[in-house]
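Handout, section B. The chain below has 494 residues.
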Amino acid sequence: MPRPTEPAAQAPGVPPHASTTHQHTCAWQAWRDSAARIVPLAWPVMVGQLAVLAYSTIDTLLVARHGSVDLAALAIGGAAYITIFVGLMGVIMAIAPIAGRMFGGGQHLAAGEQLHQAVWLALALSVPGCALLAWPEPFLRLAQAPPEVAAKVSAYLAALAVALPASLLFTAYRGFNTAISQPRRAMRIQLLGLALKLPLSTLLVQGVALPGAMFAGLAVPALGVVGCGIATAVAMWLQAGLAWRSLRRDALYAPFHLTGGGLRRPRRAELLAQLRLGAPMGLAILVEVTGFTFMAIFIARLGNTAVAGHQITANLVALLFMASLGIANATSALVAQDIGAGALERARRLGWHGVWLGSLVALMLGGAVTLGRVQVVGLYTPDPAVAAAALPLVVWALLFHTADAAQTVAAFVLRAWHLATWPLIVYAVAVWGVGLGGGYVLAFDVGGGVPAVLHGARGFWIAATAGLVTAAFAMAILLTRAPHMIRAGARQPS
């Protein structure tokens, strides 16, 4: 028997390099197998989320041409809405890893029950969410918004308060479809919502005189940013209605017994299980997103031009992020299904392949945008001052986006393992501490001595990038330990 420091002897007649070649072949085959499972689920999620992001993109493009005051209101109001929505959405999205495990283990009835309970959770969380949107004074004070901007922010968020319950209900539908490897149904509905949102936002933001003699003298007023909120509310309730119709009529859902007898009563055990996993998930997503959205609120103190440049860059990065989010959702769902089926080693391998795939795609997309940043920013605004404010920030897109993709996919995979508390701690330190706290110090030269080149919005983006790099390394360490931190996939969510 060879000593531990020596390589094992080759089999007779086998070339010395054959073992290494075989290992490389197996590794490549494993990569191909993982990609073949991830990509068919990732692209519908990506397209659906691009449709959602297109809401913000459409609003940004329309409002940027309407006026800088409305664009500043969109940046502040959008930051407030996202802060509230994503935290609540994260709680509801616990249905994906929980129902995914049940689906992987063949427990269709139990998986269907999770959707009923997620609906109750969405309705309950809509109450505090709508209240915060209807009374946004804390966000306005934090942003130190001037009166003309604050008035527009309040009206915009009032419209989004109407949209929130529909958005959360659709989140439950989308999470369930992801769990059972059917994201295309949610994607189709999201595209239909976008098909309504585009013309409706254009009409309400810009206004138009109604044609024909019978409408003489009548017109739809130009509502600016408020029109964006109204259009979003209409589109989101359309999506919620189409989702309900799909659940009732699509034969795909028959094995889950979703619609017989209407909405089932709340069940304490299932709701607590979703909350145990969903609460830290929601808080983690809230920490991550508020680290980004509060950048907009603080940058608003630097003036309308600075916050407009940040809004363009933020929207661009969010657009790139949709590819990473699709890969993260798909990988997490498949890992959860493998855990439910008892294939823990396959789940571990697939999770890592998803992280590397997401990072590679992000690197390519970020590189392309960095090289073409002048042309890309030109698509957003004709204002030279706003473009000049945005271009230095876009330079950070490559590293920022790559680190963001890596940590996002890893965090989603950890949720499939029902590990959510440790990622929350990572986000609090990396995103709030390094990113937001460090950005505030750099941007506003706290304590003095910060070089001028790091002041302003650029300081926030540099610190945010450092925070995401920190999060990516920490999530990778947690992912390495994940299979050892649960017991055969049966541990309670933590």
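Note. The CA atoms of residues 121 and 386 lie 41 Å apart. Compare this with the example in section A.
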